[in-house]
Write a structure and sequence with these properties.
Helix 1 links the parallel strand 1 (14-18) and strand 2. The protein has 324 residues and is of the alpha/beta class. Strands 7-8-9-6-5-4-3-2-1-10-11-12 form a twelve-stranded mixed beta sheet, with helices on one face. The protein has helices spanning 47-59, 78-88, 107-112, 127-134, 139-150, 172-181, 207-212, 283-288, 291-302, 319-322; strands at residues 14-18, 64-68, 93-98, 117-121, 156-163, 185-190, 220-223, 233-238, 244-248, 261-264, 269-271, 280-281. It starts with 13 loop residues before the first strand and ends with a helix. The structure holds S-adenosylmethionine and iron/sulfur cluster (2 copies). One iron/sulfur cluster binds next to loops. Residues 23, 29-30, 68-69, 71, 97-99, 121, 160, 162, 189, 191-192, 194-195, 319-320, 324 line the site of S-adenosylmethionine.
């Protein structure tokens, strides 16, 4: 099987595909208050095109596909699409990143479709703070979805929390307990400098500092790196509670050396690095269903994947566009 290897010898076997740039939330760190200018319907890849893309990525050695957005579950037909993806590629790992607001009603079809894992984003357990950070969101449906996911039989469920000083740094311990009690793995993600209006040096807090504010006793001992091919996460286990936690230091300790990922935006543009704004359109070849030209373009594009991601704080980057 062909392999996608970049000029630094990194094997790229993980694709994050955004199925929509739309979202029913406006998280302060991800989008401006008024939202982003959404793509026109015709400018979004159709599901058949995404399936064609996935098949070609798989032929190039991609073994894991994350479906993301925007909020993937606001797109109609998502669970049918995931089932078709699974039927077409029975051996790949399929994962979904979601804000979980609409997850409860979709959890059964997702589990039945054989999705391997879910990443659920949740930044606070406080309803008021939740409303504030998501601007449009309500906490309760998210909590109900998390409970439904926890008993759905889906192999791996992770809770992703963006750490923000002065917002949720004092909730770290509660979030760890909340997730562990449901056999869900909590992971704290360092706030990335993408949305210049919101990010500031003051709101960034490293895991090491947030961990110091915990009240509970017990030490956080490093766990051997899991087989998780998300790459950047480090794991710790508490010596007293037995709780585990993952930490993604996307800022204080970049993990570019082991980077194995590429991103495809909802409009079908290939991005080789989160922090590199250059994009290569693939849509014309998806519409033309031209496998050879498509694979050639992907191979040529990844040759330009930068060795390290440079911080960009120009305000032009929104996760919802890129596919977080
Ligand atoms: N809407 C879905 C969700 O929120 O899970 C999927 C897309 S969202 C862009 C994917 C992830 O990116 C979320 O977990 C979100 O917290 C994260 N994210 C967005 N902006 C971020 C930033 N500036 N720093 C760190 N993580 C960010
Ligand atoms: Fe929407 Fe996810 Fe961005 Fe929040 S982080 S605004 S839920 S895309
Ligand atoms: Fe990969 Fe770019 Fe992120 Fe580094 S900054 S880990 S190269 S996507």
């Amino acid at each position: 099987m062909a392999e996608l290897t970049d000029s630094y010898g990194r094997r790229l076997n993980y694709a994050r595909i955004s199925v929509t740039d739309r979202c029913n939330f406006r998280c302060a760190y991800c989008m401006p208050t008024e939202g982003i200018q959404c793509l026109a319907h015709d400018d979004i890849m159709r599901y058949e095109e995404i399936l064609f893309l996935a098949r070609n990525l798989h032929e190039l050695g991609v073994g894991k596909i994350r479906v993301t957005g925007g909020e993937p579950l606001v797109r109609k037909g998502l669970t049918d699409f995931i089932r078709e993806l699974r039927n077409m590629l029975p051996d790949i790992k399929i994962t979904l990143t979601t804000n979980a607001s609409l997850l409860k009603q979709h959890i059964r079809p997702l589990a039945d479709a054989g999705i391997n894992s879910l990443n659920i984003s949740l930044d606070t357990l406080d309803p008021q703070k939740f409303g504030k950070i998501t601007r449009l969101g309500e906490l309760q449906p998210v909590l109900d979805s998390i409970d439904a996911a926890a008993v759905s039989g889906i192999d791996e469920i992770k809770l992703n929390t963006v750490l923000i000083r002065g917002f949720n740094d004092t909730e770290v311990e509660d979030i760890i307990a909340y997730a562990n009690e449901r056999k869900i793995l909590p992971r704290f993600i360092e706030f990335m400098p993408l949305e210049s209006d919101v990010w500031s040096k003051d709101s960034f807090i490293s895991w090491a500092e947030a961990a110091k504010s915990m009240r509970g006793a017990g030490d956080w001992e490093p766990e051997p790196t899991s087989s998780d091919d998300d790459g950047p996460a480090r794991y710790y286990k508490n010596s007293r509670s037995g709780y585990t936690v993952g930490v993604i230091s996307a800022v204080s300790e970049k993990f570019c050396r082991g980077c194995n990922r590429i991103r495809i935006s909802a409009s079908g543009n290939l991005r080789t690095c989160l922090f590199d704004p250059s994009e290569t359109p693939l849509r014309d070849l998806l519409i033309a269903r031209d496998p050879r030209a498509l694979q050639e373009r992907i191979i040529n594009t990844i040759k330009n994947k930068p060795r390290y991601g440079e911080d960009v704080r120009d305000g032009a980057l929104h996760m919802s566009n890129i596919g977080g």
